[in-house]
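Late entry, evening session. Most of the bench is empty. Finally got around to the prediction I had been postponing all week. Sequence below, unchanged from the version circulated by S.P.
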Amino acid sequence: IISTIITPLEKFTNKSTSEIGQMIELNPNLISKKTSISTLANSMFSSTNINLTTLKNEYNLILKTVRLKENGVPKEAMSFEQVKFHQVINEKWDTSFLKKKFTHTTFLFVVFQYVGDELYFKGIKLWKMPEETINHDLKDFWLLLKNRLENGIVLILYSSKISFGKSIVLSADIIIFIISSLFHFNNNQKSMFYTT
């Protein structure tokens, strides 16, 4: 399967987003301003007749775009999934959403890297979370999150001045909940992040 994906996309390797936009007839002026990198990636696949829906349905592949800094480090942590609190509380690890998601899903990373201010396509990489990481680090993350949800989250009420008066804000001690060096949870986006 990898060769059927890589070969058609090779023509984009080491091309800037502007050059790719011209190649696939996307307005290059919109790419950096309005069109996201994931939209560009989807358009790259479409232009090479690679059907992303087929990849998702038949091979359980999920497309994720990655932007690397010049030094090769990811520009941001990768968001994977929204966490449903009630679901976490009511599930068992062996049948949990997170375990199933990472056991049965292969991620197709579409990698771009900055050179100066310009973003270049570097290639694709298939990745599946190692079984050991699922059964240890991810399980530990899930157990700690479940424990925190079951045993309560401390809510903090405070007020702050804003330009139009006073605002009352309710905050929770789970807003940024760092579990390990691999996973963390951000309640503002209700998302789980994975970093390597």
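Two things to note before I forget:
Helices lie at 2-9, 17-23, 28-31, 37-47, 52-59, 85-90, 97-104, 131-151.
Residues 160-180, 188-196 have pLDDT under 50 and may be disordered.
Will write this up properly tomorrow.
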